[in-house]
Design goal:
This is DUF2304 domain-containing protein. Keywords: Membrane, Transmembrane, Transmembrane helix. The chain is an all-alpha fold and about 130 residues long. The chain contains 5 helices and no strands. The radius of gyration is 30 Å and the shape is elongated.
């Protein structure tokens, strides 16, 4: 394959990694989610620098066409990413439910008519009688 394509893919991987780091520093991406993206960027750079690793790995797994293994790995990575994000959404949904219930309880306490009168009100009522 043309060495220029390896250089271009390395630059793309490097740019991707720096973009993730910038998003972390600007607090637009949390660290717990960024780890997956950083691993992906390093993986992209590693395969660009050492393309024979994919050939060796595919030979170990008895895959005759190395790029198909790359597609399989990408598909599995996307599945893990979707699972991770689904877990995060589930966790946030349970938090939203708890917060909504707490807010409803607090609002019901605020809007409830005052049942007991204050001692001042009782003394005023006694004076009127």
């Amino acid at each position: 394959m043309n060495p220029n394509i390896y250089f271009v893919s390395f630059v793309i991987g490097l740019g991707f990694t720096f973009m993730v780091l910038h998003l972390i520093r600007s607090r637009r991406l949390r660290e717990q989610y960024a780890i997956l993206w950083l691993v992906l960027g390093v993986f992209m750079m590693g395969l660009s620098l050492f393309p024979s690793l994919l050939d060796r790995f595919s030979a170990m797994l008895h895959v005759s066409y190395a790029p198909s293994l790359l597609y399989l790995l990408a598909f599995v990575a996307v599945l893990f990413l979707l699972l991770h994000l689904s877990l995060a959404v589930s966790h946030l949904t349970s938090h939203v439910i708890k917060l909504t219930q707490s807010l409803a309880l607090l609002e019901s306490q605020i809007n409830r008519p005052i049942q007991s009168k204050s001692p001042m009100d009782k003394s005023l009522q006694n004076l009127e009688e």
